[in-house]
Amino acid sequence: MAKILNILPSDDYTLTIELNNHHKIIYDMKPRLQTVRFSQLADINRFKAVWVKNENILIWDSLCQITIDEIISNIGR
Question: Which top-rank group of organisms is this from (predicted)?
């Protein structure tokens, strides 16, 4: 299982996710901002406050979270 080494949130609501297997994922969160789960991240300051927990979960304080497995699963859709 890939582990998250670094996360870089951008002004365009993308996340650059660096993994321990030398891959990088650029994940566009804009479509997810329309959902109830992620709607509070439309505030750019909240969006940029992301941090990594246990090397596999992206956390936005008590607002929401997403795992690397869910992100990888969503890429193919």
Answer: Bacteria
Q: How far is CA 42 from CA 6, 56, 61, in A?
A: 22, 23, 14
Domains in the chain, start-ordered, CATH in brackets?
4-75 (3.30.2020)
This prediction's pTM: 0.91
55: left (phi over 0), alpha (psi -120 to 50) or beta: left
52 contacts 4 by C-beta, under 8 angstroms: yes
